[in-house]
Amino acid sequence: MTFSVAVVGASGYVGGELLRLISQHPELEVKTVTANSNAGERLGKLHPHLTSYANLTLAETSASTLAGHDVVFLALPHAKSAEVAAWLDESTLVLDCGADFRLEDPAAWKHFYGTEHAGTWAYGMPELLRANDSKQREELRGAKRIAVPGCNVTAITLALAPALNAGLVEPVDLVSVLSVGSSGAGRSFKTSLLFSELNESASAYGVGGVHRHTPEIEQNLAKAAGRPVSVSFTPVLVPMSRGILAVNTARLKADTTEAKLRAAFEAAYASETFIHLLPEGEFPSTRSTLGVNNALIGLAVDQHAGRLVSVVAIDNLVKGTAGAAIQSMNLALGVSEQTGLTVNGVAP
Question: How much is the average pLDDT of 106-130?
Answer without folding.
Answer: 97
